[in-house]
Amino acid sequence: MYEQYQKDPESVDPAWWDFFKTYRNGAPPANAAAKAPAASPAATSTTATDGAGTTTRPPSETNQRPTTPVAQPVSSAAKPAPTPVAKPSVAPTPSSAPDASRAAAQTAAAPAPAAPARPVPKEPTTPKAAEASDEPTYTVLRGAPARTVQNMDVSLSVPTATSVRQVPVKLLWDNRIVINNHLARARGGKVSFTHLIGFALVKALKSMPEMNVGFDVVDGKPNLIQPAHINLGLAIDLAKPDGTRQLLVPSIKAAESMSFAHFWTAYEEIVKKARNNKLEVSDFQGTTISLTNPGTIGTNHSVPRLMKGQGAIIGVGSMDYPPEFQGASDETLTRNAVSKVMTLTSTYDHRVIQG
Predict the structure, then answer these.
(1) Catalytically active residues, by annotation
(2) 168: which strand partners?
(3) Predicted local confidence at residue 111, as pLDDT
(4) Nearest one of 84, 342, 49 to 193, comparing CA atoms
C-alpha cells in the first residue's frame, strides 16, 4: 500500500496520507523517531572517519531498504567512540493507524472544557406586601377577652356613682423612701406606692365596713350582701406576646387579717402568678372591692367599671404637683410647702352605698 501511495497518493484512502507522509520503508514515523534517545555526536554526524582515514556514510534516505553496513578494520591506535544501540521501535500496523489518526483529529476538534463558573449569590427575595383591603377584619374573641366582654355587659346593669377627691402625697412619698432604705440595709426588696395604697385601703375598710358590701337579687327580692372578709381585687395590666394588652383582676383573700409584710408578700405572689399565666379560677372569685391604678400611664383620674357583686372600685390617679405650681422651682415649692397630689376616685354601687 505504501508503494501504491508513492506512485499515486490519490489511489489510497485519505486517512492514510498523514501516516505515509512521515513513514519511511522499514523506519518508524518521525514522531516515533523523535521519542528515541538522542545518539552521540559521533553516531549522528553526516560523516564519520575511522582510524584508517576511511569515510563511512550513513544510509541514504531513499525508498530502498537499508543494507547492513560492513564492519571496517579498526586500528588499535585509534578507537572510535562507542555507538549507542537504539532500541528498535515497532511501527504501527496499518490497521491501527487510521483509528489513531481519527482519534487525534477528534481530540483536536473537541472543545476545551469550560472553566467552572463562579457562584453567583441569589438575589434576596422581597416578601410580598399584604394586599390592601377596604374591608374590616373580624376576629372572634375567645377565652379571657370573651369573659371580659360578658363582665362589661353585665356591669352596665349596675347603677353606679363616683366620688372624686384630691389628696397630698408628701407623707406617702417620704414613708416609701424610709421603708425602702430600711429594706436595702436589711432583707432587700422594694415597696411601691400601690403596696402602700392597697394596704391603707384595707385599713379604711376595716374602720368603715359599710363600704365592703354587695348587692344581689335572691328569690326576686333585693338583698344586701355583707362578706365575711375583705377580698381585695388588684387590676393587673399584662402585655401579651402579640403586642396587645390584657387586664386581669385577681384578688387577695382575707386581706384584713394580714400585716403589711404579709400583705406585701401576698401582693407579689398574685402578680407573679398573673405574669406567669398561672392564675386559677378561684383567684378571681369572691372579690368584694377592687383597686386600679391608671396613674401609672399618666391618667389624672378615671371612672372605672364596677363588676357585679362588688360594692366599690377605687381608682388611683397620677402623682404630680398642682398645675399652678408645675413650673415653679424646687426652692419655691419648698418655701411654700407645696406637695405633690394624687386623685382618688370611688365608683360604688348606688343601691347599697349612698355616699
Answers:
(1) 350
(2) 341
(3) 58
(4) 342
DSSP 324: G
170 membership: H or E segment, kind and range = helix 170-185
* Grid coordinates belonging to 203: 385599713
Cα 333 from Cα 62, distance rounded (Å): 131
Assess contact for 54 and 74: CB atoms under 8 A. no
Please report the pLDDT score of residue 22 as a whole number.
76
Question: Nearest 5°: phi and psi at 182?
Answer: -65, -40
Instruction: Give the cell for residue 162.
Output: 363616683
The partner residues of 314 in beta bridges, in order of sequence, read 291, 346
Which residues in 91-198 belong to E strands, given as ranges? 160-168
Do the beta carbons of residue 40 and residue 81 sit within 8 Å? Answer: yes
Read off the C-alpha cell for 269. Answer: 405572689
- Start-to-end CA distance of the chain, whole Å, equals 136
Mean pLDDT by 10 residues, the chain (355 residues): 78 78 60 44 42 44 45 45 49 49 56 66 71 83 83 88 94 94 90 95 94 93 94 91 86 95 95 92 93 89 90 94 91 92 95 85
Query: Among candidates 27, 87, 19, 39, which has minimal Cα distance to 63?
Result: 27
Q: Give the contacts of 134 (CB within 8 A, at least 6 positions apart).
A: none
Contact assessment for residue 232 and residue 251, using Cβ atoms and an 8 Å cutoff: yes
Largest CA distance in the chain: 159
Between the alpha carbon of residue 149 and those of residues 140, 152, 205, 247, 307, the distances in Å are: 12, 5, 29, 12, 12
According to CATH, the topology of domain 159-349 is Chloramphenicol Acetyltransferase (3.30.559)
- Residue-wise over 272-301: b if at least 16 C-beta within 10 A, else e? ebbeeeebeeebbeebbbbbbbbbeeeeeb
pLDDT computed for residue 112 by the predictor: 58
Provide the residue ranges of all domains of the chain, joining segments of one domain with +. 159-349
Q: How far is 64 from 61, CA to CA, in rounded Å?
A: 8
Q: What is the pLDDT of residue 350?
A: 94
